[in-house]
Design goal:
about 475 residues, 3-stranded antiparallel beta sheet, Cytochrome p450, 18 helices, alpha+beta, 13 strands, heme binding
Length: about 475
C-alpha cells in the first residue's frame, strides 16, 4: 500500500514538472516580452484576477503587478498568454488600431453566453453592418422621438410603487433598465407574462458571466439555459414577423428585419445580436443608476446641487406633471457631471480584451507576440492620481474642467458604445423624478463589490418618503 502511494506521489510530481516545462516552452524565444509571471500551469493567474474586490479602489491584482513590473506586464489569463496594459496612451493606441493590429477577443465564457456573433466578438464587415444598425436606432433624433417619453412613463410608473416602502435600488434599477430596453428592442410590454419569463432568463444570463464551468447548478450553466430560452423566443418572433410582416412596429428587431444591413443576417446572427443588445443596454445602465444613488446619498452637497438643477427645470414647466422635453435634458449639465463621476469610480466595464493580429512593439521596446491577448485596464486609468486629482473621492465638480482624453467608460475607437447616450438619458431621467418627488435614506449599511460584475451586497436598501410629506 505504501509503495502504491509513493508511486502515485512520484507520478503526480513528474506530471507537474512536465506541465511546468511545457508552460515555459510556450513563451516565444528571443522576444523582449514585458516583465511579469505566467502563474500556475493551465489556470495561470486567472483566479487571482477574478477575485472579489471592493469598488472605487484600484484592482489589487493589477495594482500589485504595476508596482512591481510597471505599466505593462505579462501574465496568463483565461487560458491564454496575456499582456496587461495600464498605460493611458498605449491603451488608446490599442483601441484605435482595432481591426489593424488588434481585434476584439473576449474570454470563452463571454463568447458562449453572448454568442459568437455578438458585437463583442463580431469583426470586419459584419461588425460594421451591426454598428450601422445600432447607430441608426440610437441616434439623438431617435432618442428624442422614440425613447424620451417612453422612458419617462416607465420611470414614473415604477416610482409610484415606492412611497412609504423600503426598496432595493439595485433590483429596481435592473427592472427599470430591462423593461425599457426589452420594449425598444423586442417591442414587448413590461407587464406581459412572456416579458416576466424572459426577464428571469435574462438575469440568469447576466449573473452567469463568470468562470465557464458548464456543470448543472453552476451560475454559468444557468446562464446558458437562460440564453437558450431567449434565443428560442427571438427565433419564434422572427418566424412570426417574417410570415406576418407589420411595418408599423418601431422596435429594433423590426428594423433589423427591414434594413438592408440586417436583411442578409442569418437567424443565428440575429439572435446573438439581440442577446447582446439586451445585455449591453441593460448592465451598464442599471449599475450606474444604482451607484449614482449610492454616491449621492453619501454626498449631501452634490445631492443638493443636483436637486436644485432639476427643481429649476420643474419651475419652468407649465404644470407639475408636464413631461420633460429634449431641451430640458440638454440643460442637465451637473447631472452629466454626476454620471461621469459615477462611471469613473464604478468602472462597470473594467477593461477591453483584444488579440494581437501581428507582433506589436511598444515604445518601451517590449514585443507583444501575434496571437497573445491584450487586456487594456480602464479601472487603473480612471483611478490614476496623475490623471485625476484625489481619484478615490466622489467629486462631480471635477468634470467642469477634467479632460476626457483617457475617459473610456463606454470603450473607444471603432467599438465605442453606440448606446452611451441612451444610458445617460435613462440615468438622468431616473435621477430627475427621484430627487424632485422623493427623499431617500439608507435603510442599512451596504457596500459595492466586483465579482464578474458590480453589485451591492444587500441591493442598496433605502426608505422612500414623498417630498410633499416632508416640506
Amino acid at each position: 500500500m505504501e509503495a502504491l502511494t509513493l508511486s502515485w506521489i512520484l507520478a503526480m510530481a513528474a506530471l507537474c514538472v512536465f506541465l511546468a516545462l511545457v508552460w515555459r516552452l510556450r513563451l516565444p524565444p528571443s522576444m523582449n516580452l514585458p516583465p511579469g509571471r505566467m502563474g500556475w500551469p493551465l489556470v495561470g493567474e486567472t483566479l487571482e484576477y477574478l477575485a472579489t474586490r471592493p469598488i472605487g479602489v484600484p484592482q489589487p491584482f493589477i495594482a500589485k503587478r504595476v508596482a512591481r513590473y510597471g505599466s505593462i506586464f505579462k501574465t496568463h489569463l483565461f487560458g491564454c498568454p496575456t499582456i496587461v496594459t495600464t498605460d493611458p496612451d498605449f491603451n488608446r493606441f490599442v483601441l484605435a488600431n482595432e481591426g489593424k493590429l488588434f481585434q476584439s477577443s473576449y474570454p470563452a465564457g463571454v463568447d458562449r453566453v453572448l454568442g459568437k456573433f455578438s458585437m463583442v466578438q463580431a469583426s470586419g464587415e459584419l461588425h460594421k453592418r451591426m454598428r450601422a444598425l445600432t447607430v441608426s436606432f440610437m441616434q439623438a433624433q431617435s432618442l428624442k422621438d422614440n425613447f424620451l417619453q417612453t422612458i419617462q412613463a416607465r420611470v414614473i410608473s415604477l416610482l409610484s410603487t415606492w412611497e412609504g416602502r423600503v426598496v432595493k435600488i439595485q433590483d429596481e434599477a435592473q427592472s427599470l433598465s430591462f423593461d425599457c430596453i426589452v420594449g425598444h428592442v423586442l417591442g414587448m410590454d413590461p407587464g406581459a407574462e412572456n416579458t416576466k419569463t424572459i426577464k428571469e432568463d435574462f438575469f440568469n444570463l447576466v449573473y452567469g458571466l463568470t468562470i465557464p464551468l458548464r456543470i448543472p447548478g453552476t451560475r454559468y450553466w444557468t446562464a446558458m439555459k437562460g440564453r437558450q430560452n431567449i434565443v428560442r423566443l427571438v427565433e419564434q418572433m422572427v418566424a412570426e414577423r417574417t410570415t406576418k410582416p407589420c411595418t408599423a412596429r418601431k422596435d429594433f428587431l423590426q428594423q433589423l428585419l427591414q434594413d438592408d444591413n440586417g436583411k442578409n443576417l442569418t437567424l443565428e446572427q440575429i439572435s446573438d445580436f439581440i442577446v447582446f443588445m439586451l445585455f449591453a443596454a441593460h448592465d451598464t445602465t442599471a449599475t450606474a443608476m444604482t451607484m449614482a444613488i449610492k454616491y449621492l446619498l453619501a454626498n449631501p452637497q452634490a445631492l443638493n446641487q443636483l436637486q436644485e438643477e432639476h427643481l429649476e427645470i420643474r419651475r419652468n414647466k407649465r404644470s407639475p406633471d408636464e413631461p420633460l422635453e429634449w431641451n430640458d435634458y440638454l440643460q442637465m449639465t451637473f447631472t452629466q457631471h454626476v454620471i461621469n463621476e459615477t462611471l469613473r469610480l464604478t468602472n462597470v466595464l473594467t477593461s477591453a480584451h483584444r488579440i494581437a493580429l501581428q507582433d506589436v512593439q511598444t515604445e518601451e521596446g517590449y514585443v507583444i507576440p501575434k496571437g497573445w491577448k491584450v487586456v487594456s485596464s480602464w479601472t487603473t486609468i480612471h483611478l490614476n492620481p496623475k490623471l485625476y486629482a484625489e481619484p478615490l473621492e466622489f467629486n462631480p465638480w471635477r468634470w467642469k474642467t477634467q479632460s476626457v482624453k483617457y475617459f473610456t467608460p463606454f470603450s473607444g475607437g471603432p467599438r465605442f458604445c453606440t448606446g452611451s447616450e441612451l444610458a445617460r438619458l435613462e440615468i438622468a431621467l431616473l435621477l430627475h423624478f427621484i430627487i424632485t418627488k422623493y427623499s431617500l435614506h439608507p435603510a442599512e449599511d451596504d457596500e459595492a463589490v466586483y465579482f464578474g460584475t458590480v453589485k451591492m451586497r444587500k441591493g442598496l436598501p433605502v426608505t422612500v418618503t414623498k417630498l410633499s410629506q416632508i416640506l
